[in-house]
Write a structure and sequence with these properties.
Cytochrome p450; five-stranded mixed β-sheet; two-stranded antiparallel ribbon; 9 strands; 9% strand; binds protoporphyrin IX containing FE
C-alpha cells in the first residue's frame, strides 16, 4: 500500500477556491465529502486559513495517517482548538518513546477492570440523576454532562469536598462546546480551562504533600506517581493537564449519550434488540459513534518524509484526515446513512474503518485510549434506555445540523422524567 520508491504521478486534485476556510465554516462536517465528490478523489489539496493542506479520507488514508509514526500533532491545530482540547505538554503533543511511555499510563488507567468500575459509578450517578430530575422537563445533554462529571470525579478518586462540581462540569463541557468557535466564547472557555488547570495542579500538589488522601489504584494516584520516560516524576502542571485529559473526554461522552437517546427515539424497534443482549448494546454504541457527528477531522504535520501514491510528503506539510467522511465512506459502509447497528455483526474490526476516535493502534499511535470506556458507557446507557424507558421525549426540534461543530440536536434533546409517585 505505501509506495516509498514508486514513480511520481500527477498532483492530487486541487480545490479551486483561493481559500476553503469559508467553505469549511459553511459546510461543517460535510465540507470534505462535498469536495471529495466534486473532485472525484479521496485526496485533494486546498488552502485553509491561508495554509496549504492535503485533505484525505478512507481506510487507506487513515492507515497512512495513524500508522508508521509519519505525523506529529505539532502546529497541526489552531491554538483556539489546541488549548481547549489538549495542551502543549499533553500526551498528544509527544512523539516517539516519550509518547509511548506516557500513553502506557493511560492504557493502564483504562484497563477492563477499571472500565467496569467506571460503568458502575455511571450506573449509580444515572439513578441519582433520574431521582433528582423526577417530574422535570430538562435537556438530556445538561443532565448527561452533570452525571458524567460526577462519574468521572468519583472514578478518578477525587473527594467530593475537594471539587466545585457545577464549575467543573461547566468548564469541562465548555472546552468541548467551544473548541469549534472563535472569538469571545472561545476565549472565555480558555480562561475557564486555566482555572480548572490551577485547581487540578493544586489537588495533585496536596496529594503529593500528604494533605489529601486518595484511594490506592485510582487514576489520581496513578497520575501522582506517574513518571516521564527518563524516570523523573511528572511535574504537577503536566499531571494536571493529563487529569483534564481524563475528566474532559469522559464528560464529552455526554454527546454520545444524547445521540444514543436520539437514535433509540427514532428507532424504537432497537429496544427489543438491546434489552438483555450486551453484544447488541455494543453494536448499537458503535453505530452511534459511526453515524453521529463528533470530531470532524484530525490534523497532523509530516515528521518523517514518505511517498504515497507517487506523491512526496515532506516534513512540516499539513495533512488532514476526514474522520466523519471515513465513518460515512460508501466503500466501507453499505447504505451508509442508515442507522443500522446490525452492520457490526461479524464486522472485521479493521482499525482504520470506524474512526470516530482515531485510527491505527492506541498503544503505539495517537488513537484515543478512551475508546473502550466510551463504548462501555454508551452501551450501558443504551441498556438503560431499552430496559427502563427512563423518560419521555416531548415535541421539539430534534434536527442535528452538520454545520455546527460539535453537533447537538437543536433543542439539546429535551426529556421529561416521570414524577414521583
Ligand atoms: C466522546 C468520546 C471521545 C471521542 C469522540 C474522542 C476522540 C478522540 C480522538 C479523535 C483522538 C485522536 C487524536 C489524534 O489523533 O491526535 C483522541 C485522543 C485521545 N483521547 Fe479521546 N475521545 C473520546 C473519549 C475519550 C475518553 C473517555 C478518554 C479518557 C478517559 C480519552 C482520552 C484521550 C487521550 C488522552 C487522547 C490522546 C491520545 C494520544 O495522543 O496518544 N478520550 N480522542
Amino acid at each position: 500500500m505505501t509506495d516509498l520508491r514508486g514513480p511520481r504521478t500527477r498532483p492530487f486534485p486541487r480545490s479551486n477556491a483561493i481559500d476553503d476556510s469559508m467553505a469549511f465554516l459553511r459546510n461543517g462536517y460535510a465540507y470534505g465529502e462535498r469536495r471529495f465528490r466534486r473532485l472525484g478523489s479521496d485526496v485533494f489539496t486546498a488552502r485553509l486559513g491561508g495554509r496549504p493542506a492535503t485533505v484525505m479520507y478512507g481506510a487507506e488514508a487513515a492507515a497512512i495517517f495513524y500508522e508508521g509514526d509519519r505525523f506529529s500533532r505539532a502546529h497541526a491545530m489552531p491554538t483556539s482548538v489546541q488549548h481547549l482540547l489538549q495542551d502543549e505538554a499533553s500526551v498528544q503533543a509527544l512523539e516517539g518513546e516519550p509518547h509511548r511511555h506516557r500513553k502506557t499510563m493511560f492504557t493502564r488507567m483504562l484497563e477492563p477492570a477499571s472500565i467496569d468500575e467506571l460503568v458502575r459509578s455511571f450506573d449509580s450517578e444515572w439513578s441519582a440523576a433520574c431521582r433528582r430530575n423526577a417530574g422535570r422537563t430538562v435537556s438530556l445533554y445538561d443532565v448527561a454532562v452533570d452525571t458524567l462529571t460526577r462519574t468521572a470525579v468519583s472514578w478518578c478518586g477525587i473527594p467530593e469536598h475537594a471539587v466545585d462540581l457545577p464549575e467543573l462540569a461547566g468548564a469541562v463541557a465548555a472546552m468541548v462546546d467551544r473548541a469549534g468557535s472563535f472569538g469571545p466564547g472561545n476565549w472565555m472557555a480558555r480562561a475557564r480551562r486555566r482555572g480548572v488547570e490551577r485547581w487540578a495542579a493544586e489537588l495533585l500538589h496536596d496529594v503529593r504533600r500528604g494533605r489529601l488522601d486518595i484511594a490506592p489504584g485510582t487514576p489520581v494516584e496513578q497520575l501522582v506517581l506517574a513518571t516521564e520516560a527518563d524516570g523523573s516524576l511528572l511535574s504537577e502542571d503536566v499531571a494536571a493537564v493529563e487529569l483534564l485529559n481524563v475528566l474532559r473526554p469522559i464528560v464529552a461522552v455526554s454527546r454520545y449519550l444524547v445521540f444514543a437517546a436520539h437514535a433509540m427515539h427514532h428507532h424504537p424497534g432497537q429496544r427489543a434488540s438491546v434489552a438483555g443482549d450486551h453484544e447488541a448494546a455494543v453494536r448499537f454504541a458503535n453505530e452511534v459513534r459511526r453515524r453521529f457527528p463528533f470530531f470532524p477531522i484530525i490534523a497532523g504535520t509530516v515528521q518523517r518524509p514518505f511517498r504515497w501514491r507517487g506523491h512526496d510528503f515532506d516534513p512540516g506539510e499539513w495533512v488532514i484526515l476526514d474522520l466523519y467522511a471515513t465513518n460515512h465512506d460508501r466503500r466501507l459502509w453499505s447504505d451508509r446513512n442508515r442507522f443500522a447497528p446490525e452492520r457490526f455483526e461479524g464486522w472485521s474490526g479493521d482499525p482504520n474503518t470506524l474512526v470516530p476516535q482515531g485510527g491505527g493502534d492506541a498503544a503505539t499511535g495517537h488513537r484515543c485510549p478512551g475508546e473502550a470506556a466510551t463504548i462501555a458507557l454508551t452501551a450501558r446507557f443504551a441498556e438503560h434506555l431499552a430496559t427502563e424507558a427512563p423518560f419521555t421525549v416531548p415535541a421539539q426540534d430534534l434536527r442535528i445540523s452538520l454545520r455546527r461543530i460539535p453537533a447537538l440536536p437543536e433543542d439539546r434533546f429535551l426529556v421529561t422524567f416521570p414524577g414521583r409517585s
